[in-house]
Amino acid sequence: MKAWEKNIRKVVPYVPGEQPDKVKMVKLNTNENPYPPAPGVKRAVEEFDYERLKLYPDPTVGKLTKAIAEHHNVDADQVFVGVGSDDVIAMMFLTFFNSDKPILFPDISYSFYSVWANLFGIPFERPALDDNFRIIKEDYYRENGGIIFPNPNAPTSVYEDLELVEDILEHNRDVIVIVDEAYIDFGGRSAIELIDRYDNLMVVQTYSKSRSMAGMRIGYAVGNPVLIKYLNDAKHSFNSYTMNQTSIAFGIEAIRDEEYFRDTLAKIMATRERTKKEMAALGFMFPEPMANFIFATHEKYPAKELFEALREKDIYVRYFTAPRIDNYLRITIGTDEEMDQLIGFFKEYMK
Ligand SMILES: *Cc1c(COP(=O)(O)O)cnc(C)c1O
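That's the Histidinol-phosphate aminotransferase sequence above. Prediction below.
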């Protein structure tokens, strides 16, 4: 070992789903949207003046922040924009979780949370979800340094109603509570309606799933302006120009097109309902999905075996080796044609 090794910060990174570069594949492994971004985004891409790239972007991300605020009927000072919600949440861990007491998040949830906690040296505890992958709200009544959970949850697709969210808020007035709503648009009700009553609530959303713009990297938080200011202070102590010119320009167009957004969501939810029926008929079991993916286990075929067999045929789904979920597949809802290929594969395999 080199002498300098001992001074190096060593971390165990998050492992994202693979991004294979194949012409013909069915990609259902990272919860991307199978439909293109809104038509206004295409226009903005075509009209974008490449000379603008010589200038730094607006460090306040003013226009995009304003567009997002208008969409949610809040003030611009209640919105913080970042490079995907991963960037927003990382900034929140750094800024809000600065206590000696452990932060709390469910044992089965977004696996990035423990990575950030370890990176920043934040103690954490992970109360176990019940056997149906539901949050046990009483587990969050204990003393803690902050709380974060995804709703709907990832990778289970389970949605908890706002009563549970509010109950957790009621019992935690003295710490920051973050609700990660990466999948809220696929059928849930956003906790943004609670921000005026809870000054310690932060709600995070993203363009990556419901707005078909994972490649553009746009995420944001909505909540108390005082907390938003602390987030901006942390951001400007790190890198002021995180949001690039194109993300800002295209992001504004995407959030303005409500009709296209609703249409795309309706299509994905309809495909989800169809896929649910077909998978149940094949012997799969899954909690009621409220996101753009289904978290399924099969009574007879081990998930790992199915995952590998699918991969052989260039059908990509996600498989996790973590305890309690290592016999499940997380399957993104793609187009009807893509789901037909998936179901067709299962029918053939299980014959
Ligand atoms: C996808 C996802 C994110 C991150 O999305 P970004 O692409 O960084 O906006 C955050 N939380 C959960 C639960 C997710 O599934």
